[in-house]
Amino acid sequence: MSARKLDGKAIRDSVLADVASGVEAAVRHGVRPGLAAVLVGDDPASRIYVRNKVRACDRIGAYSETIRLPSETATDRLLALVQELNDRDDIDGILVQLPLPGHIDSRRVLAAVSPDKDVDGFHPVNVGRLASGQEGLKPCTPRGLIEILKRSRIPIAGSRAVVVGRSNIVGKPAALLLLAEHATVTICHSRTPDLPSVCRQADILVAAVGRPAMLTREYIREGAVVLDVGINRLVDAAEVDRLLAHAPARLRRFRRTGSALVGDVHPGHVREIASAYTPVPGGVGPLTVAMLMSNTLLAACRRLPENGRSSA
Ligand code: NDP
Q1: Global pTM?
Q2: 85 exposed, middle or buried (CB, 10 Å; 0-12, 13-18, 19+)?
Q3: How confident is the model at residue 262 (pLDDT cuts 50, 70, 90)?
Q4: Which end of the chain has a smaller Cβ tally under 10 Å, C or N?
């Protein structure tokens, strides 16, 4: 029996449709959510990420602004810009695209963003709010995982969840969000002994490792739900042939383009053993920008008259 493929693009579209309705309602109350994206230097991947975020703002009817600074920008200049954006009433979300050039003190810059405008959810105040169960902006990719489960009607409460990876941007917040949804959560990392047997206990298995197809059949319990956060670009033909043997269309695309994306979970094994899984690409990835839009709307709600602040 082949597992149910959880279609991240369809779920993203339904999240964005809901966010767009929320934006429309906010605009009726005089509040147009606004996102400022700060891009330092000319890293091509960062430019594409920012462009996609700006397009998503257009799609939901939010205001957006991209501020481009040269790569030699000093930390103090960036801190002053963040302060200006913190002070602006028409900007609800501030996104400093990472990575910043090496000479910039990234930690100081991120900590300077007002926690209420921290739409990436990385500010220590928001990390503390998440850990202590208080309201706050939460990281986008982990929020996307919860959204996938909920919109696919996969129960979280009472389930046993195993998260492989303990990074601050994915693994740890994903575990905290699953815990807040009443899963029983185990977090694993590179020092976890006998990882396959720990993973095999999972009803919900989250892979956020950054190692192509590391979670093979021995890591997956029959009938588990598997969420694959990993994004790994492969160029080695023998490896791609081995991992995508079940997917001739993807092999043909690899022959044309010279690269293929795979997650941290073995793409052939997961569909034989899991009950449901997110593919790579097209699973968890599309949700990240959608949840950024959702966070921008949530941040803007602070300006609604019923929340006690006048709108800009
Ligand atoms: P990090 O490199 O920050 O963290 C990787 C984690 O995996 C670490 O906790 C590490 O353990 C653990 N790990 C590494 N090797 C092993 C191993 N052999 N066994 C068990 N655990 C191991 O990565 P990120 O969390 O930032 O990203 C993870 C993946 O998710 C990447 O592929 C990234 O590209 C992708 N990603 C996708 C996003 C999306 O939108 N879909 C967004 C963000 C990331 P330890 O702490 O012990 O070193």
Answers
A1: 0.96
A2: buried
A3: very high
A4: N
The catalytic site residues sit at 53, 97, 120
Q: What is the pLDDT of residues 278-292, one digit of tens each?
A: 999 999 999 999 999
184: amino acid identity, one letter: T
Ligand 1 contact, 278 CB (< 6 A): no
Query: 8 CB less than 6 Å from ligand 1?
Result: no
Residue 192 Cα, ligand 1 centroid: separation in angstroms? 14
Q: Mind spelling out the 3-state secondary structure of the chain?
A: CCCEECCHHHHHHHHHHHHHHHHHHHHHCCCCCEEEEEEECCCHHHHHHHHHHHHHHHHHCCEEEEEEECCCCCHHHHHHHHHHHHHCCCCCEEEECCCCCCCCCHHHHHHHCCHHHCCCCCCHHHHHHHHCCCCCCCCHHHHHHHHHHHHCCCCCCCCEEEEECCCCCCHHHHHHHHHHCCCEEEEECCCCCCHHHHHCCCCEEEECCCCCCCECHHHCCCCCEEEECCCEEECCHHHHHHHCCCCHHHHHHHHHHCCEEECCECHHHHHHHCCEECCCCCCCHHHHHHHHHHHHHHHHHHHCHHHCCCCC
pLDDT higher than threshold 60 for residue 310: no
To test ligand 1's pocket by mutation, which of 167, 188, 216, 287 has the most ligand atoms within 8 angstroms of CB? 167
Residue 301 is given by DSSP the state G
- Angstrom distance (rounded) from CA 41 to CA 292: 22
pLDDT band for position 309 (50/70/90)? Answer: low
pLDDT at 2 over 90: no
